[in-house]
Design brief:
Low-confidence stretches of chain A: none
Order of helices and strands of chain A: HHEEEEHHEEHHEEEHHEHHEEHEEEHEH
Number of strands of chain B: 5
Mean pLDDT of chain B: 83
Number of helices of chain A: 13
Radius of gyration of chain B: 18 Å
CATH architecture of chain B: 3-Layer(aba) Sandwich
Low-confidence stretches of chain B: none
Largest sheet of chain B: 5 strands, mixed
Largest interface: A-B, 13 and 15 residues
Strand order of the largest sheet of chain A: 6-5-9-8-7
Distance between the termini of chain A: 137 Å
Oligomer: heterodimer
Strand content of chain A: 15-25%
Shape of chain B: globular
Radius of gyration of chain A: 67 Å
Helix content of chain B: 40-55%
Strand content of chain B: 15-25%
Helix content of chain A: 40-55%
CATH superfamily of chain B: Periplasmic binding protein-like II
Structural class of chain A: alpha+beta
Largest sheet of chain A: 5 strands, antiparallel
CATH topology of chain B: D-Maltodextrin-Binding Protein, domain 2
Number of domains of chain B: 1
Order of helices and strands of chain B: HEHEHHEHEE
Number of helices of chain B: 5
Mean pLDDT of chain A: 87
Chain lengths: ~525, ~150
Amino acid sequence: MNKSALVFRLAIVVIFAASAVGFLSTLIFYRITYLNELALSKTKLTQLHSTISPTASIATYLEEQEMVTEVVNGLLTNDIVKGVDLVSPSLKITSPLYEKTKDTLEFKIFSPFEPDRVVGTLSITPNLVEITKRANKISFDNVFIIGIQTAIVTLIIIIVAYVVVTRPIIQIADRLHHITPGTKKRVRIPVNHKHSELGSLVVDINLLLDKTAEQIKQERNLRDEVERLSRHFRTLFEQSTSPIILTEPKGNILLYNEAFLHLLKKLDIPFKRSYGPYLRELFIDQALVDDCVEMAFANDEIASGEFQLINNNQEIIWVQCIITASITDAYNEHHQITLHDISKRKQQLEQLDKTANTDKLTQLLNRRGGEQKINALIQSKTPFALLLLDLNKFKPINDIHGHETGDAILIHVASQLTKGMRRRDILSRWGGDEFIIVLPNIPATELKDIADKIIALIEAPLFIPQLDSSLSVTASIGATLFPDDQTSLKALLECADQAMYWSKEKQRTNPQKCFSLYHDWLAMRREQS
Amino acid sequence: MTRCYYRSILLCLAFALWQHAVSAKEAIVVVVNSANPIEQMTRSEVIDLFMGKYVAFPDGEKAVPVDLDGEQPIKQQFYHQLVGRSLASINAYWSRLRFTGRVKPSIQKNTEQQVVQYITNNNDAIGYIPISKLTKQLKVVYQLNE
């Protein structure tokens, strides 16, 4: 039998309690019985004394030994008398077992003729052994009855407790034990317990089971949902072509995907635990990245920008970088960094830009491209000289020898001009047979020589296979200075145009004078007027 | 008429008896021979002698108590005044002691006069008499009170 079973425990407690109460009551009962018996024995002894009093009185008065002995022996025949002692002035009769104790009763013996004359003393010691024996017997009977009573009551309590309380509880416990939370099984209410506490306990248990089942179902759904989502997110994360990296604010990498490893491989950079905050060590312009991130985070915004990555290979890699700061549930700050490779687009854009700004025929900057560059110089207030070069008698070449020859001449001029230019100079085909040459940071005094050199380069003859002969073109140049003459491109162009036409005018008389400065033209005009 | 006569006779007799009782209520004294050295006795000493406790005077001399026989009024009065008991009670006392060897006073006299005579002739005798019967040869050692 299970030692912790309810019935067993209850039985132990009831038996123990009953035994304890029985034992205590027996002790008390024994004591009371004993005292009662003692008192009773004293009463009996007093009665005994009354009975023998006249005889004892005469015997003692006369001090008649035989009579006194008779009295003493008479008293000793009572089983409640242990010892007797009778003393008179000249006689003392003591029974063998007599001893004076606190229970000993003493009676004065008076003369039979003089009620106030004491003639002796009678001492009777009660037989405590006998009294104890009697008390014991009474107590034993009592214990026996209490024992039987206890046993019966215990048995009844145990049976009732088992039938009314324990068995239903065991049934409930047993059923509950076999119920898996989340299933539809429920505990049945024990018979005759529909309205008892056990009944409401079962109802509550079932309610709890219902609630648990509902919660388990919800949790299961939620878990499924979370699993599905996380699977999707994992797929998204792992299969993303864009590198996604999660770092601590100091830069320790917590999480990264395959794409990031691919990128590192592409950049020929070994994988490290940290590349500094928001991977800044990977960028070329780290200060720019820092500014961008600082500004965005200060405004609680997502930092984003396009930056070039350091690459140990030749390829130029540009990425759009998105950096998000997030706080986790555990109050840790994390940075999520997403990199989109935009190199190709960047390249395409650059290519497009280049195409848009380039003259298809000569591969020089076209007018649009030239304007952009010159405006940039104006904006940065870099002093420069702007030369407008116009080919002389080009239209007739086109008309006589055809467009192809004209184109060949233009290509030839462009390549010749390119030869004479420094890296920082801007060379642009402005349209038709017009070219613009911009020379930054050049002294005005050197312009004449440069112009002569340019003219010489242009005038180099070009062999045309179709004509089976060589052609040579001349050109007129007008120059103006920024910021000395004008400060806007439009005005500068007008100035250069003016100077160029003055050159053409002068060339009619002197073919050598093919270069003029706007400044000189202005001076000439002032002289004339 | 005759009934009335008898009644008067009965009344006369009762009166005579009452008269007799009054005369018997005379004080009783315990006496010894005047030659006896004892002078005074206590009530207890008298009781001890007459109830058989001792057979000697307090001074150790032999004592012979003299009693009256029968149930004479003076005897009744003596025991009544001495120990407060009737003669029947006294007789019961003695019969209880029959087997112990103790006996009531062996000298029993018929009349008070004989008692006086016996004590006068015996030095160790002791007895009781009405005070009126006192003679010069006798010595009062104890007087009983009402």
